[in-house]
Amino acid sequence: MIIADLHLHSKYSRATSKQLDLPNLEKWAKIKGLNLLGTSDFQHPIWNKHIKEKLEQKDNGILISKDGFNFILQTEISLMYTQGGKGRRIHHLILAPNLDVADQIIEALGKKGRLDYDGRPIFGFSSIELVDMMHEISNQIEVIPAHCMTPWFGVFGSKSGFDNLKECFEERINKIHAVETGLSADPEMLWRFSWLDNKSILSFSDLHSFWPWRIGREATLFDIELSYKNILNAIKTGEGLSSTIEVDPAYGKYHFDGHRNCKLRLSPEESLKFNNICPKCGRPLTIGVMNRIEQLADRDKGFKTANAKPFKKLIPLSELISVSTGVKQLYSKTIWDVYNKLISEFKSEFNILLNVSLEDLSRIVDDKLANLIINNRNEKMKILPGYDGEYGELILEKEDQQSLTSFG
User: Fold this and answer.
1) Residue 121 and residue 81: Cα distance in Å, rounded?
2) pTM for the whole thing?
3) Percentage of residues in the chain with pLDDT exceeding 90?
4) Is the distance from CB of 370 to CB of 55 less than 8 angstroms?
């Protein structure tokens, strides 16, 4: 089974760890339980050199590290443009089949703007132009709308997105085969859009650091023989796309409506009472993903499509240790000691979260944490939803509700 995280950033993207390089990504991917990563930011000149120094390209389109870890060429770009009389700000993932094609993408993008100032560069052309540009280079390039529901930069976002996929891509819609859920949405929410029925639903982390509470927090599983061609076919057809790992969408920064500055978090029903205006400051609320889903859905909640892939909602292990111990700083020695003890015994975080029995967990950690891990696996976690750029908060059972942790 291939467990892939194909939405990453390098240390040359804004607001990322300065230690975010390929060796660290590989190290923590193995600890997490991933076996395929995106390279991130392949168009950035310094990072591109780093890729070519650290990875060897194979005939199957996979790049291999010296220790045999697998990568696929991947980047994300930001488009800011006007379409339909409205300003749009849309992020897209780009997957490339080999270094030669990646170099051609770099040449084409370089004619549109600078590539050296940010690992996720900004351009002023449309999503339609992007698809045309990529397919003029190669039909093996895949463009995937990133974190599709995010208010500010998702293709369906409340602030600058579109009301459906065709509105964005027009006659190029058949060249778009998938969308990425993002942290604040999950596949079940997107099944409510009939116009996504023939599109794959993918999940990746969009990490800005390599730590285990970031890398692989969302991932996609493929049941195929590893090659770029097979990954691409699975994305296009759904065949071999097995399932996804999601965080609970309430964990995401934009699940509920609200105003961070006013410390106001509102459900869609509550927002409606105030006509989507903040009752504290009088400014428009940031409309979250849950509200936006209700605006756009043409199906009732709970609808399941015929080609729906299974998915699992998991909170990362570090957050479980944090709320169990009451230590909020995820970098603390207390949390690392428990985390490393579990990894030493059970090899990878995904194995711990998905497979290790309660009995075996209880041999290594206290019953409180062991039960949290099992409840997480069974999707019985309680989360106070995130809003307006604030992560959600994990709440323990009633007797422990004084303990909260914010996933910041």
Assistant:
1) 14
2) 0.95
3) 96
4) no
